[in-house]
Amino acid sequence: MSGGRNLVRLGILLSGRGSNFLAIAESIRQGRLKGAEIDVVISNVPDAGGLKIAEELGLASKVFASTGRKRAEHDADMLTCLQAHKVDLVCLAGYMRLLSPDFIAAFPNRILNIHPSLLPAFPGLDAQRQAFDYGVNVAGCTVHFVDDHLDHGPIVLQRAIPVLDSDDAHSLSARILAEEHLAYTEGIGRVVSGEYAILGRRFVKRTH
After folding, report:
1. Where does the pLDDT of residue 1 fall: very low under 50, low under 70, confident under 90, or very high at 90 and above?
2. What single string gives the DSSP state of each residue in 118-183?
């Protein structure tokens, strides 16, 4: 992937309100995320709030409802759409469904996700409450590549925040979300630049 003159085409996958998607779009619009453009937004939930955001921003969007469908068939439809839009990098922005192996294989190290914990701690659903209930002193979020295992691929970056004595699970989630909006833009920027290598599980910036 290269951050040269050709813009890297992003495909956004979402299932809900789309706050991380909006943060990415705003970062591109305001010039904080250079070398990338959002080419299509896909949701597996027909009434997802993120679709309305895409409409308001004038971005192409598509719904492939996943309810009652086999994952492989559903993902094949998404894959066809992403390939038609010539998407270079897929960004999961609150996409609440596991991807099929064939989908992941079609975008090797070209699918990013953001998870609201400091992986490998607290993978899966409701990670913020998991962290709070465990009693951690530090929480945060992780931008990582997607592989065949849940919340497992190589880590691009992490942002950490202290857990305050005044926090509850709700306030901690809100503070982590604010970090997500910053981290995802930075993480996408690192990948779009092309100035990196993956050594084993390590994401390493290349320097000239």
Report:
1. low
2. -TTSS-STTHHHHHHHHT-SEEEEEEEE--SSTT-SPEEEEEEEEPPTT--HHHHHHHHHHHHHHH
For 2-47, write each residue's pLDDT tens digit: 544 589 999 999 999 999 999 999 999 999 999 999 999 999 999 9
Residue 154 lies in a domain: yes
The answer to the question of residue 70 being in a domain is: yes
Q: Which of 74, 115, 149, 181 is catalytic?
A: 115
- Residue 115 annotated as catalytic: yes
Please give the residue range of the domain that contains residue 161. 8-205
Model confidence pLDDT, tens digit, residues 149-173? 999 999 999 999 999 999 999 999 9
139 is written with which tokens?
């929480």
Considering only CA atoms, which of 94, 96, 176, 93 is closest in space to residue 132? 176
CA torsion sign for 113, 114, 115, 117 is positive
| Domain-embedded: residue 2 | no
Q: Count of domains in the chain? A: 1
CATH code, 134? 3.40.50.170
pLDDT at 175 over 80: yes
Report d(CA 126, CA 5) in Å as an integer. Answer: 40
Task: Look up the pTM and report it.
Answer: 0.94
